[in-house]
Amino acid sequence: MAENALYKIGITQGDINGIGYEVIMKALCDNKILDLCTPVVYGLAKVASYHRKALDLGDFAFHFIKSAEQTSLKGSNLINLSENEVKVDLGVSTEIAGQMSELALNSACKDLKNKLIDAIVTGPINKNNIQSATFKFPGHTEYLAHYFNASDTMMMMIAENIRIGFVTNHLPIARISQVVEKDLILKKLRILNHSLVTDFACTNPKIAVLALNPHGGDHDLIGNEETDTIVPAINQAFDQKINAFGPFPADGFFGSGKFSQFDAVLAMYHDQGMIPFKLLSMEEGVNFTAGLPVVRTSPAHGTAYDLTGKNIASAQSMRNAIYLAIDILRNRKILEERF
Fold first, then answer.
1. If you ran DSSP here, which 8-state letter would residue 123 be given?
2. Which residues contact 248 (CB under 8 A, 6 or more apart)?
3. pLDDT tens digits for 271-281?
4. What is the secondary structure of 125-165 as a DSSP string?
5. For site-directed labelling of 146, which of 131, 135, 152, 181 has its Cα 20 to 30 A away?
6. What residues have CB less than 8 Å from 320, skipping those under 6 apart?
7. Which CATH entry fits the domain spanning 1-150+292-327: 3.20.20.10, 3.40.50.720, 3.40.718.10, 1.10.10.920?
8. pTM exceeds cut of 0.85
9. Which option is the CATH number for 151-291: 3.40.50.20, 1.10.287.370, 3.40.718.10, 3.30.1330.60?
């Protein structure tokens, strides 16, 4: 792994018709980032130039290169993945955009596996147009777990004042109660606890576990998953020296600000955690995949087609995703050297 000032952070372009390039280039205008890492964008030179024309970025420019071995340490790099003409349709989902999203992701993951870069920050993709014969995943998290052969992974949402992990990711509501079992909750608590220690340098972390049913089941009146599934998982986790507490009804837990008393929160399903998270930190939050042997972060927003081409998208989430990747690399290195 590179020294701190020379961390090579790969950044995938995401959907070329969304705000990916806008937030990437705006974020890389921050000179503090260049003091901490060398950005390596996986994308298309002509598409990057197309987007740059619409932005007021002063003297910003990429070093266009053909491979990660050619990376310049004196600025932001872009690996040009294709010389072919690729049509940009701002704000529109297209087949070619999906193909280019997959190409960038595959290329970055290959270089990450070969240790040509130190971490990846993934630009927002369209989960529909990226589907293909070789990409049949509901999102980045599942793809990365498959690519790096990691069975114990978890999606986490990170902001300055809150961290949320998820028992289930992109799953239909109708299936959640069938999937949320004691062993799965316990497995996710182990992943979350390990990540808090390894990736976020937490000492003896405290984890809040959310209930599945309204009012925590109201003593089994509204549902018995809390009594039969969640509480036993919490008790077993505590026996394994994981400081898990709950289950807490989600509405009162977030409404009262009780989340601030914990190092992380474990949500049972996607919207249970994502709605409060985005209300608290929509433009600043970061998506992190815990449990991978590599470091991957992403801005917490999507392609935002409605904002594309208007030069109004905030780059703060992308900027924070880059900083978080660097922080996690540092924390892992410190822990490795300590032991």
1. P
2. 208, 209, 210, 211, 216, 258
3. 999 999 999 99
4. --TTTT--SS---SSHHHHHHHHTT-SS-EEEEEETTEEEE
5. 181
6. 159, 284, 285, 286, 299
7. 3.40.718.10
8. yes
9. 3.40.718.10
